[in-house]
Amino acid sequence: MTNEDLPQDPAAVAEEVVGTASPPPFDLPDDPGEALPLVIEALIETRLAFDARTEDLQRVAAEYENYRKRTAREREEIVLRSTQRLVEALLPVLDSLESALAHEANTPGEEAILSGMESTHQQLLDVLAKEGLETVPAVGEPFDPNIHEAVMGGGDGRLVVTTEMRRGYLLGGRVIRPAMVGVADQETTEAG
Fold first, then answer.
1. Range of the domain at 144
2. pLDDT tens string 99-109
């Protein structure tokens, strides 16, 4: 600290500080001119300690916020993985229902059974849709190896899905099972 940093009348400032504040935690000389530099030094040390504490508190607050965000993400991921496991376990049930619904009813009794199965199938799809399950678009769509698994057909040009042998599903926008499809060149399907 230089003399330029000191107030014009250090004795008056020291008298004011000593007279109005609680006594400092150290002994001050009786002469206000000698006390002022000690008080200013103590004030600077206190300010530095305060700044250090403030930085510590800001760091702790930032760490806590990061912790809170990380645990929220982890919790969402756990819920998504649990949902995915349950949905994947139910996919064979959906496949079986869809396979059974593909048969034509020959009697009124079979029609009633198929009607009940259709209702159950739709209820299951509705419940799973609320959890984020979507079907992979297939027949007529351009072949996309990210969501389709081609097991039949092929070609050299732009491929289009011509048949769907097993429905594919997305959960929360992520593929949990690609659609098993047959493909052909787009030009072949347009010509036919």
1. 132-192
2. 888 888 889 99
